[in-house]
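Please check this chain.
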Amino acid sequence: TGSSYPEGHIGGIVYDWLRGRGIALAFVEAVRRPDSTIFVAQADSTGRFDIPFVNAATYVVYGYLDANGNRGRDPREPYDSTIVTVAAQPDTTTLALRAFVHDTIGPGFTGVEVRDSLTIRVSFDQPLLAATDTAFFRLLTSDSASVPVARVIPSDVYDKAAADSAARADSIKRRDSLPPTRVPLPPPRAGQPDTTRRVEPAILPGPLPVQSVILKLGAPLKIGASYRLSAQGLRNLLGKSRTPTRVFLMPRPPRPLADSLRQRAPGDTGAIRRPPPPAASPVRPPPR
């Protein structure tokens, strides 16, 4: 009843680049060049999509999280785009779109947290492609003396190592405990859907963008001193850069309870002392 349909396909996965997982129900547009014909599709619950019946041509493919459901790319909605060429029919092109919020201003600091005298956690207002080079950071005292930065560790790597260490210590304490009893699930009945099998979102291979880092210092911070941290060369996911600066203090540690009790007078337990009542006047007998 007419000419045959084109046999080209454009498929792939739309990832949330920050979380490293597929975006459920992501919206996809393939704009054909040069006539700007638009082919649309919606991803499934794992972030996978397929656009069938496309001609051999060049396309600009957009994948984005349609947060407000208007089927349009709004300024603060994460998206990614790429250019593909569908060659001779049949042809299937597979893409991996990494969606993120496109910021045209370079990254800055949102917080500097002193963990101890040799450890600082630095948070950024945007995700970064790379921030593990010590040359990116410069730490100065109030008199412009330099404090060396020995190592830069992504916070997720540092926190995972700390959690694994705590788990190993806890497993040593509980090595004599019995393992939990596992009760096998009964198989589904005939004609009943198997709800025990859940489709997981697609996992993005490779390292994820950095949103905070741990700075390991080569010299300890002094209590009560002021420091200035600056970063130069840090770039966001669009490659934009700037030089943020943050001033912070090395806080004084809280006074231990034992030390506060040690400074009290002997026998003073901290209870509220009330003044003793006035002594009663002696009663004199009346004169005879």
